[in-house]
């Protein structure tokens, strides 16, 4: 089971969507939601030019006194997409087209509100713009008034600390804590809460979903190459961790050290290549324009890879330092 597939399985349960809204959308309108009406909506749309497009998970529920709809477009990403806001705008357009075809309008004949959510669980931290306006050049003279206004809610798991998440009696917070765990003991602590929260018979399906995700996604990711025993319930996962805590803690630490060494070697190689590029470009600058000043040296040493590549190409035709650096 891939990571994204495991998440989609978890968030196919209404309990997860309800806790996502209650715990991570801190806005007044959430208090007016009727969570008992949560209903999964198909995420497959056919656009007007008959091109089919698959989206992630979409839900609707009653909001306030009337039947207004709130939809959640949940994007699962493991890498930063700089133009995610553009993708969200496209998904919203497809969704609204489908709403119009289905006749799911308000009593006033208007479109229902949509909450787009990007749930991110990768490294590094999310750095892309959450509003499409930040991706469009500002133009004077009134043209800026025609820029679209689309924004999405970002949930970057790695930005939440244990202090933020631990006080919450919330399934999504528990998921984030499991993702951010560093030792088997961390996982056992979260499991104790999940077992207590999901003890009712009617919660068997979501309890099973967490068990499957831990068995097929979380633990294999923490212990690559280790055979994970078959388990059927969260209590069995907890017992398994208790039995193997010493063995798996050592293996966990070993994996972490190996990962650190690999990352260190990779960073070292990258830094070595960069220093070589800087030295070569500095030599070319001095051959063409004479001895480099401290300011020029500082500019080269602080430059990013894109600038170094551009200047290395431009030095062949530049007639001055001003022209070289643009």
Topology:
Blueprint: H1 3-10, H2 14-24, E1 33-41, E2 44-46, E3 52-54, E4 58-63, E5 68-69, E6 71-77, H3 84-102, E7 114-120, E8 153-156, H4 162-165, H5 171-179, H6 184-197, H7 204-222, H8 234-289, H9 294-301, H10 305-314, H11 321-325
Parallel strand pairs: 6-7, 7-8
Antiparallel strand pairs: 1-4, 2-3
Helix pairs in contact: 1-7, 5-6, 6-8, 7-8, 8-10
Notes on the protein architecture:
The chain is an alpha/beta fold and 326 residues long. The protein has helices spanning 3-10, 14-24, 84-102, 162-165, 171-179, 184-197, 204-222, 234-289, 294-301, 305-314, 321-325, and strands at 33-41, 44-46, 52-54, 58-63, 68-69, 71-77, 114-120, 153-156. The strands form three sheets. A three-stranded parallel beta sheet has the order 6-7-8. β2 and β3 (52-54) form a beta hairpin. α1 runs antiparallel to α7 (204-222) and α7 (204-222) packs across α8 (234-289). The longest helix has 56 residues, at 234-289. The radius of gyration is 26 Å and the shape is flat. The model has no long low-confidence stretch (mean pLDDT 83).
